[in-house]
Amino acid sequence: VDVQLNIRGKKLSDDQKKMITEHNATKTPLYLIVLVTELCSFGIYEQLTAKIEECLSANDSEELFEVVLKRLDEDFKGKDWTVNATGKGAIESIMSLLYCARFGVSENEMKLLLGLVDQRWARLFYAVEELLVIRSGLLCIKRSQLKKAVQKHYNLGEERQEEIRTYLSLFFYNGLKAVDTPLSRIVPELPWLLEKTHQLDKLREVITEADVFRILCGALAQGNYDLVKYWKTIGDDADKIVASYMQSIEDALKKATNSAAVQVIAVAATRIGQYLAEAGHFLQAVQPFKKALTLKEQVFGKNSKEVVETLADLARLASSQGDMKSANQLYSRAIQSSKSLFDPTTSLTLANIKIGYASVLKRMDDYETALGYIQDALGVYVRQLSPQHLDVALAKHNMADILSRMGMNEEALHYFNEALAIKITAFGELHPSTASTLNGIGTVYLNVGKLDDAKDAHEAALRAQEKALGRDNPE
C-alpha cells in the first residue's frame, strides 16, 4: 500500500492503513490496486476516512469498480457533460460504447461518436485512463470485472446494448459509404454490429460489397470464419447468396471507370467463386467464375495467365459435378493457352493444372495421356519443391493409381510406397491421407495375388481411418 501511495505522493494515517489491511477483500491484489488508485484520485483529505469506508463497503473488485464509476459520474455530471448523441453522461457514454463495441474504439472514433473537441476529450481520458487498455490502437475496458461493473452500473440490458450497437453500426456504415475510414477498421466491427442488432438486409449489403468480401474471405485462410457465420445468420440459401454477390459485381461494374477497376472486380468475382466452391456450392460457384473469365478476357486478353487460372477453376468445378466433358474441354483450353505463358519445366501453376487434368482423364479412362501429364507435373514438383513436399506425395500417389489401372503393378507399388513414406513423415501413420495410400497398396497386392500383404495393408488403412475419423464414420 505504502509503495503505491508513495508513487503518487500520497500518505495514509496508521488507522486508515489498518482499515485497509484488515479488510478481507484487500487480500485480493486487484481489489487492493483499484482501491489505492481510487484513493489517490480523491482530493479532500478531511473526508478520506469516509471515502475509504465507502470503498470498503464493496465486497469484491466488481463492486469496487462500481464505486469508481459512481465517483466518475459525479465528477462529470450536469448538462455540460451530457452527450447530445446519446443523451447520457460522458463517462456512461464512453464506458457503454467500449462495452458494446466488438474490439474497442479508437480515440478519434470516440471523439467523433461523442461530438467532443480535443480539450474536453483530454479531460475525460485522463479521468478514465487507469480503467482502460490500448490494444492495436483501440481503447478497451481493461478488466473483465470492470466490464461486469459497467453492465450492472449502467443497466446495459439487451435492449440498451442493441441501441448502442445500432448507433455504432450507423457510425461505421457511414464511414464505409463515405470511404473516410480504413476498411481494415470497418470490416472487423460493422458486420458484427449489424448481426448483433439483427439488421440482416444491411448485413447482406455490407458483406457482398467487393472490398469487404475480399477482407472477410481472406480471413478464412487464417481460421476466421466470420463470413460463414454471417451468411448462416442471414439464412440465405446458396442461390440467394450468389444472386447477392452477382448484383454486387454488376453494381461495381457500373461505377468502374477504367480497366484497373475492372481488374479488381474480376479478382473479386474469382474469390467469390472460390468461396462458394469451398463451401460446397459448386453449381452456384460457376456463375461468378464465368463472370470473372469474361472480365479477365476483356482486360488481360484471352491468352493470359489470369484467364488460364480461371479456366482451371471452372474445369475443377465441372469435374466436381461429374461433368467430365466440360472439364476436359476447359482443361484442354487452359493447357493450350499455357504453352506461350509458362515454362513447362518450372511452372508450378501449370503443374497444378496438369494434375487436375490428369484426374479428369483418369476418370475418362484415358490413362496414357493422364500418366504423361502427371509425369510432367511430378518433374516440376521435384525440381521446384522439397522431395518431401506433400504435392510430390500427391503426384506419386496419383501416378501409382494410374499405373495400377494400366496393370503396371510393380511400378505402381514403387510410387505408392514413396508417397506413403512422405505422408507418414508429414502426418503419421494414423491419418486419412496415409490410409488412402495404404488402400492403394492393398489394391496392388490384391491385383498380383498377394492376399496376405493386401489384407495387412487394408487393415492398416482401416486402423488409420478409425483413429482419425471414428468407427461410426461412413468412410
Task: Compute the average pLDDT.
Answer: 91
Would you count the extended β strands for me? 4
Listing every helix as H and every strand as E from the N terminus to the C terminus, the arrangement reads HHHHHEEHHHEEHHHHHHHHHHHHHHHHH
| Biggest sheet character | 2 strands, antiparallel
Shape: elongated
Report, as a whole number of angstroms, the end-to-end distance.
64 Å
Query: Strands across the major sheet, in which order?
Result: 1-2
* Count of runs of 4 or more consecutive helical residues: 25
Structural class: mainly alpha
SS strand fraction: under 5%
Q: Level of helix content?
A: over 70%
Radius of gyration: 32 Å
Low-confidence stretches: none
Features:
73% helix; 475 residues; single chain; mainly alpha
Can you describe this structure in just a few lines?
With 475 residues, this protein is an all-alpha fold. Helix content is 73%, strand content 3%.
Structural write-up:
By secondary structure, the protein is mainly α. The protein is built from 25 helices and four strands. Strands 1-2 form a two-stranded antiparallel ribbon. The chain has a two-stranded antiparallel sheet with strand order 3-4. The chain is elongated, with a radius of gyration of 32 Å.
